[in-house]
Amino acid sequence: MNKTKILVIGGVVLLFTIGVGYFLMQNSNKESTVPSSNAIVGDASAVPGAGATCSKQYENILAQYQQNFDECRLKVAKATDCAKDPNAISSAKQKNIVVVFDSSGSMNQIVGGKKKIDVAKEAVSGFLRDIDKNTNVSIVLYGHKGGNTQASKNVSCAGIDEVYYIGPVNADIAISKLAGAKPTGWTPIAASLQKANDILKNYPADKNDNMVLLVSDGEETCGGDPVAKAKELFGTSAKIVTNVIGFDVTGPAEQKLQAIASTGGKYFSVHNEEEFKAAFKENKNFLVGFDCYMEQSGVWLDNQLNTEFMRNDCMNKLDMEEKHELILSANLLNDGVTADCKEFILSEYQKRYDQIKSEIEQRYSANKSDTEAQKKTLEDTRNNLDAGEGALIAE
Q1: Alpha carbons 215 and 37: distance in angstroms, whole number
Q2: What's domain 92-288's architecture?
């Protein structure tokens, strides 16, 4: 073999050797860039095919759809304290009360050796002498006209009179107007409540505390619906509360009187002079403490509504505005989500969802508990004002 052939063959071998070496080196570099199955890369270690890019994809998609849940723990408002002595409670509001007095035929009956109407008159007289002189008072009579026969029913049912016109109470004059009432006729309670509404409708609740005090020994007999009428009064701009004193009445008749008071007022069952006096004392104390009680009632209702609303609002944010949108986007491989990272993103989001849902329910339970405590405060205040002892509000 001549020298030229040897040189050519040697050159070819050298080039082949260099090429093989370069190929092996490149292949070795490629293998070193692939992480092993046991490598920990961010939070995606257990997800096949997930690398650092999956965590980044999750951060990006969460940033687009995550909601703020800071307000889900509602701060439950507390009612303000009421004065211990209800007579010391000052109010910028004018207090107005319409006494609706039953002079129907049944008030002729004897209780404790006296006619019912005489017992009731004495109790009302004591109330008129005892209330604050700045209180506006009106007295409305029904059942004092006509008779209790069918022939005189229309006259009696229409016979509703304001015998003491609303104004600052003058006990002597008011009592004298009541003294002449004779029990003869029927019982138009609903129409009498309408008369009270006509009297109080020009006294808006923002400047006035308005109460009807119905004194009766029986149910409606003139075809009206006193429960619906009492609801109507409470729903007006005057927000008229109807309290009812049921005198020596039981069974279905008493239940109907109780239903009238259930529209926003309170029912008092009395059977003798002492119970009558106690009922009027409670009404006096409640009237004086009216502002404080109504404020506490408003606080409790607001808390109750806000607690339920906040829970529903937060769950709507979580389910519809965050979870629904994020999962839909991940499943459709939108917003930069790749197929190999989808399961990792869904798994990571489920952890967040479960945690936030649990926190919302815990906060709702705490809000509900605080609100129930405020309801107890409201009930205690009412009972204490009724008894004339004021209210002690727990901090």
Answers
A1: 87
A2: 3-Layer(aba) Sandwich (3.40)
